[in-house]
Amino acid sequence: MNLPEPIQNLVNALSRLPGIGPKTASRLAFFLLNAPEDLTRGLAEALLEIKTSIVYCQRCFNITSSGRDLCEICGNENRDSQVICVVEEPLDVVALERTNEYHGCYHVLHGVLSPIEGVGPEDLKIQELLERVQEGEIKEIILATNPSMEGDATAMYLQHRLMSSIVKVTRLARGLPVGGDLEYADPSTLMRALAGRQEMS
Ligand SMILES: [Zn+2]
């Protein structure tokens, strides 16, 4: 049976989301078909809003509300702006913030180096990081890319690029599940990885 076009369109759109296969997409589509209108309207509005109301922080490239240059963290005077934790995605910032133990700032790369997928240094916010370091007020860079092959390679690359600067470069301690994402690590594991960070040499 062919589904009516509007439903099929919704199923197609939902199945493009990460972790959602065709079966789940159909189930969600039919759920939404029968859901109260305030839910579907709220969802539709929220979806449109994230595209118009969220921008990237001009210093660290974390997400922030439009109309602001700096995110809440960069704009907070109580945060230590001399320590920068380098992560792959804004979700990693959320994960590290959940530990309540990190009081420095961040730099979001928006991806990792991946020759297979054609992602090179110029596709990530690497130049922007180097510029922050060149401005000279940074004491430590914590490389907190995921413990995956690409995450490790990106950390090595950054360490190499930062070698000529006097800044201390550390890497999160092992103990995070290998190949796992920071965003899925529980706060106490992340806290230990952060506390046990080691200088790269
Ligand atoms: Zn920021």
Instruction: Calculate Rg over CA atoms.
Output: 20 Å
Hetero groups in this structure are: zinc ion
Which structural category do the helix and sheet elements fall into?
A: alpha/beta
State the helical fraction. 25-40%
Count of discrete alpha- or pi-helical segments spanning 4 or more residues: 7
Distance between the termini: 62 Å
Characterize the biggest β-sheet: 5 strands, mixed
Taken as a percent bin, the fraction of beta residues is: 5-15%
- The coarse silhouette is elongated
Mean pLDDT: 92
Low-confidence stretches: none
> Main sheet: which strands, in order across?
4-3-5-6-7
Number of strands: 7
Tell me the series of helices and strands, N- to C-terminal: HHHEEEHEHEHEHE
